[in-house]
Predict the structure.
Amino acid sequence: MNNLAIKTNEMKKYLLINGEKVETENYAPLYSPYSQEKIADIAMADKELTIKAIDAAHEARQLIGGMPAYKRAEILENVVLLLKERADEAAEIISLESAKPLMFAKAEVARTVETYKFAAEEAKRIHGEMIPFDAAVGGVGRIGYTLREPIGVIGAITPFNFPLNLVAHKVGPAIAAGNTIVLKPASQTPLTALFIAELFAEAGLPAGVLNVVTGPGSVVGEAIVEDDRVSMITFTGSPDVGIGINNKAGLKKTTLELGSNSALIIDKDVEIDGIIDRCTMGAFSNQGQVCISMQRVFVHEENYEEFITKFTEATKQLKLGNPLDPETYVSSLITKGELERAVSWIEETKQSNAEILTGGKVRDNVLEPTIIANADQSLKVSCQEVFAPIVIVNQVKSLEEAVELVNDSRFGLQAGIYTNNVKNAFYASKNLHVGGVIINDVPTFRVDQMPYGGVKDSGTGREGIKYAVEEMTELKLVVWNQG
Ligand code: NDP
């Protein structure tokens, strides 16, 4: 770890309020989830400091709201350039604080560059539409149009699992649309959030537009949600926290990107060799800590034996270990508590008819990628969000049965289907109750301009820059009486 471009150990971090680095009374040590080494001391904000950040964001509304679109786009373009220059450093920070294997951290940085690029482009095409007023008897003699205005102060609360790109999905469209932000990153990933905020300052973003407040969700997050000057909460995280936020948000607008137990259907006649790499990525990238991780696979009985044999073989080859080793595919879960929970869910399957095909054990603080066959729908690994390198594979007799099993879930984020049959693809896209159906790929597929979000307990609202901009703007109508 001594070869890192970033300097750790002695790092003492700060809050970022109104362009100033603000110290706090209390600091909490941040440890690497893999090595348990101390990485930094993180400033712990209290309610008062959170309110100061909201004051700053409230004061700065005109600075960004009144800024022309080309300037907002320019700042975002500058961030794209700066992030490209410092891509390796960004990937190391992600890897260090979240134990995301470097190869996936690098991929996240590359995607984040695209996300900010989309935001820069979107800043230039925020517009309303003409309304045909004379279509109503009472509207004759009027012309009118809609405008999209910034919503104001946005509270952005983000999770640990994509600490750079999920911040980008909030900060990018918020700035594109002319809003100010109070960002509360996950307690395990504050360094990535502070890193990008520094790039924004360098890129020319006025002080007060982006404020970063680190500290416990129950203190900082709640203070943001409670404040009347915050017009919108954009939250990505677990369903329980998201539902709690929604209950307290009152009339604030909310976007909630929550969890899932995403599924893949493999139809008959699919060439199995061609899909194994995608399946290992879908199930095990970032240790399965991906909201659209492939958690459940329903395979047509004709393909079942071949699939489980080849999938198990490929999974056994994955390299476990230090996230900073470029060869590592699977590393530690985010906390010891999460590791214990995942192991206890595997233990539960041993009391049932399920069979562990590979994995299930912990090696050097890393849970082996685990495949479980024949898991009942009522087991936790099936019906709850597993958020660990665990996937269940069950066989089905028909597509209809598979679709029914996928839909038998409290979640509905994305689902995938591999099929060569057009009719079956149509059937799946019509009948799967999810936010996105991915045909001929795993449910884990995402690029950053597509509309993304869930139904049922997977949340409300959509991200994907254009769609997030819609959520982050108010529609205003202007009517001219020509009479
Ligand atoms: P959490 O829900 O634990 O935390 C998310 C954020 O909420 C953190 O910043 C956390 O702060 C904060 N928070 C915690 N308690 C409160 C509170 N009472 N009020 C306000 N904020 C609070 O999620 P994880 O970080 O563990 O992330 C994993 C979850 O995120 C999974 O369920 C996953 O599916 C979901 N997710 C969804 C995505 C989507 O787009 N649908 C994408 C990625 C992840 P602190 O860290 O200090 O507790």
In short: DSSP finds 16 helices and 25 strands in the chain. The CA atoms of residues 151 and 478 lie 17 Å apart. The pocket of NDP is lined by residues 157-162, 166, 184-187, 216-218, 221-222, 225, 236-238, 241, 244-245, 257-259, 291, 385, 387, 413, 459 (CB under 6 Å).
